[in-house]
Structure formats: structure tokens, C-alpha cells
Amino acid sequence: MNKKMFLSPVLVALATLTSNAQIMDNINENRSVAQAEQLNLTQEWDKVFPKSDKVDHCKVTFVNRYGITIAADMYTPRGASGKLPAIAVSGPFGAVKEQSSGLYAQQLAERGYLTIAFDPSFTGESGGMPRRVASPDINVEDFSAAVDFLSVQPRVDAGRIGILGVCGWGGIAIQAAINDPRIKATVASTMYDMTRVSANGYFDADDSKAKRNANRAAMAAQRTADYQNGEYTRAGGVVDPLPDDAPQFVKDYHDYYKTPRGFHPRSGNSTDGWNVTSTLPFVNFKFYDYADELESAVLIVHGDRAHSYYFGKDTFAKLQGENKQMLTIKGASHCDLYDRLDIIPFDEIATFYRDYLK
User: For the chain, which domains are there?
Assistant: First the structure.
């Protein structure tokens, strides 16, 4: 008998185990959903707004399709029963969930919605390296990953999920809704179009081939310097101290991010900002090319004294259908809609969701 043809039962078992282990390694390498990273989440209440006694709060995590683990606060109406409509909230751009987005999420939970306020990829308590990176693709994906998570929660009605974005994340929310028809209703509050402002400057003052090419050249040079230095240069966050000639909207940002009103140590806007090179992909990416194809409901909320008002008006003009609304808040500045409970129209926002999350 050929000895190679005869294997003891032990050797057969070992060979089988080795083969199965290899198979499992291959499966793990090619799995469609990444394993969640173990994040170090703060358990004490460290928001810039007081905790409500009308909702229950807990920390949760989920994974986006790039394998980044996202940290979020979940707010559930206290005493609610049955499956609930759900809303995912993020923003402003450069902020964290302990600031404006958490306030929005808690207020909407008081009005009957299960909500999450999440930190974007590479930001706050969420995972992803390097830190403080922004990406038009990955940030849009973060909203869809939040919908993934909400869709499988036992307390959530998966057919009634909406999203809400504040500031730059308002524009990102609309782009996410264009991409993802599971999102039944979207609110953009005091929104920016981050691709437009990155490519054209404020009020389109730098909308030229020469200006954009100069910007691209500066970002390319910054990439070389960062790689040589082994670290990413930060953009600096909200300017502090304020220069005497600062525009009013910069003063408004300072009043929120650099004072006890809104300062948070994990917020890039409160501290040293994004990586400088995060601007580059936004220069070369356009939101809303297919805005006229968005079928789900949208509400844009903007103050008529906001420097960003033109973003809301121009984006609204691209939307089609009777389920698209714009609500202008008279006398409100951009940052008034971050946290001013006497100005933010939470009841109207809740009514909008009630009408379209059904």
C-alpha cells in the first residue's frame, strides 16, 4: 500500500481543521460587513446642553461600508411603546455629537422619535485614521450607515427612517437622500453646500479656473509637506482670538465654538480644525447633480440673516416635487439654528417628519 494514501484519523482531523481555518480566514478577509472596532466611549454626560428627563439615552456604535466604526448617542422617548419612526442626525461640519446635533436629536426624541446623533468618520469618538479627515464620499456614506443601523433595531419601524443635517451636514444629508431611497424624509438646517464653498469660495468670489488651480496646487504642496513631516497640518478651527475686522459670521462662530455656549474639546471647530488637505476632494466633487431625481421629502430650514442663506435657497431651487419645502426663519443668523431653542422650529420639523415618515 502506498503510505501517502494512508493517513491516520488524527492526521485527517488536523488536515481538516487546517483547511477549515484557511476557509474561515478567506471568508473573514472577504466579508461584506467589517467587524466593529472597540471604541473608548465617554460614559458621563459631557454635552454642551442639559440632559432631558423625557428621553432615555445610551451610547451605540455601528460600522460603515469602509469599515469605520461610528459612535453615536441614541435618544428614545421615555415610556414609548411599539416600533418608532427614527431619525439620524449629524453636524455641523467639524463639530461633534455633544454639540448641536445632539441637541436636535434629543429635542426630536422628546417629540416621539427614536434618534441617533453620530460623530462622522475620523471625528470625535468615532473610529478611522488619520484623525480629522473629511470626505464627500465617506461622509455621505456615514448617513447611509446610520440608516443601516437603524433599520435593524427592534424599536425602529424600518419603513419610517429620516435624517437631519446641520450646517455642512445639511448639504451632505440632501446628497445622502439622493443616493439612498431608504431615507424617507430629510431636514437640512442652516445648510452649507461644502462642495460649492470649497470650489468657489464664499459667495462664489473665487469661482474661476485660475483660483481653483491655485487651490489645487496649494493642497498638492501641502500633501508633500505632510508626508515629509509625518503628520497632517490642521486648518486651525474657528479663529481665536478674533481679529478686529472679522466678518459677523466669523464672530457668530466664535460665540458658539469658543465660549461655554458650544465649546467641546473633541470638536475640531472648537479646537484646531480639520486636516488642511481635507478640502481637496470637496473642490473636485459636486453635490446635487441629480437633485431633480430625488423623490423623497426634504425640508430646508434657514435664517434670512445667515451668511449661508444662499446655499439653502439655491439648493431648494434644484429640488422637484410638492414634498419639498423651505422654511425661512426671519431674523435668524446661521448659528442661531445651532442651539437657540427660542428660534429653532422644532415643532414644525417634527410635524414635517410626522407627515412624511408614515
Answer: 55-193+287-356 (3.40.50.1820)
